[in-house]
């Protein structure tokens, strides 16, 4: 994928992102790491077009992320699954396909089963979110995001609300998706996952990209900020 961030500044009551410019090409799995409050979620929301920057522009694969059409080509996974509670895992997917993509019922069902199986949920398709584990629900949100065949999936700490075992289940399932040819941009504190899955790492500090490179920057941090971070998260 190509990420092209041009002079992005974002302000809530204070400046959160300070004039970020960054171009990255040819990586498919990009991790964003950094301490809490460094601006990771804000940058991810801006890259996914969920929020409009105070100033600057972002292009993903040469498309401005604020173009209405862009949203059709992405999926976003939040910290907590946001499945519809009154629908089964299957219906969570078929509803989206039928209502937002005009897919017919039978094809929607087939697609739902295909992606739920891919996330190892073939035995859970008729259950409601409250009747499955947090890890299974999060895997179902990933299946739902994939079902519309997006080119890029954004994930903001997808395992933050899960215990270590469920975290492992979710992250191993994500690793198996490599073959799908999707792009992934994700925020996580699980550095083993960054090492295993990311092919590029962006380290944020105080609203700026402070260091970036292939995952071996984790073993050879240049900046004091990344050195400190590595000590804290270990
Ligand atoms: P991270 O994901 O790295 O923890 P965030 O992007 O969530 O960082 O937040 C960066 C800064 O912006 C923090 O100081 C946070 O308090 C502030 N912030 C984030 N979202 C909002 C918001 N919707 N309104 C006001 N301040 C916010
Ligand atoms: Mg965050």
β-strand number: 10
Structural class based on helices, strands and sheet pairing: alpha/beta
| Radius of gyration of CA atoms, rounded to a whole number | 18 Å
Please give the count of helices: 7
Distance between the termini: 30 Å
Strand order of the biggest β-sheet: 6-7-8-3-9-10
Regarding quaternary structure, what we see is: single chain
> Which ions, cofactors or small ligands are bound in this entry?
adenosine-5'-diphosphate, magnesium ion
Integer average pLDDT: 96
Estimate percent helicity. Answer: 25-40%
The rough form would be described as globular
The topology string of helices and strands comes to EEEHEEEHHHEHEHEEH
Q: How would you sum up the major sheet?
A: 6 strands, mixed
Q: What is the element layout, followed by pairings?
A:
Layout: E1 2-11, E2 15-25, E3 29-33, H1 40-47, E4 55-60, E5 63-64, E6 74-77, H2 89-101, H3 105-118, H4 134-147, E7 152-156, H5 164-175, E8 183-187, H6 191-197, E9 200-205, E10 208-213, H7 224-233
Parallel strand pairs: 3-8, 3-9, 6-7, 7-8
Antiparallel strand pairs: 1-2, 1-4, 4-5, 9-10
Helix pairs in contact: 2-3, 2-4, 3-4, 4-5
The chain binds adenosine-5'-diphosphate and magnesium ion.
